[in-house]
Amino acid sequence: MDFSPPVKRTLLHRRSILCEGYEREDGLWDIEAQLLDTRSFELPLPLGPRLAANEPLHQMGLRIAVDRDSVIREVEPLTAHGPSPECRDISDTYRQLLGLRIAAGFTSTVKRLFGGRLGCTHLTDLLGPLATTAMQTLWAAQIRNAARGDETPISCRRYTR
After folding, report:
1. Dihedral class, residue 43 (left if φ above 0, else alpha if ψ from -120 to 50, else beta)
2. Which of 10, 57, 60, 142 is the most exposed place for a label (fewest CB within 10 A)?
3. Residues 42-60: pLDDT tens digits?
4. How many beta carbons lie within 10 A of that of residue 50, not counting itself?
């Protein structure tokens, strides 16, 4: 995708979010979301040494496993880099996702469980793209299976029950 030519500028911050969906051999689907923040300049950290330019300020991710009904069966949060020790400490709170169904109301449930100081802003921000990646992955699997004659494709309406 190409934007129109920009005014002369200098990159200061880059945030990359990558989401991927995998079909597992055990009948579940792994959905992974990763976030990477870097700065183009050396950055002093409030609780530690200076962060070199282009080194990770935030490098975090979530992996969930969902079943065919979009129920979260496994959760693995990961914080490889964060500006504070508390960034790693909060990760386990995301195990509250276990048993939740990715469907109507999921976003409001996420805000209630992890909003504000109850969670990490960055991990919580990943849950939106993680949820849509889960839906796209399940749809892709069902469309592929229907093309092979294995099952009927699902529709968006199915997920509003």
Report:
1. beta
2. 10
3. 998 877 788 999 999 999 9
4. 10
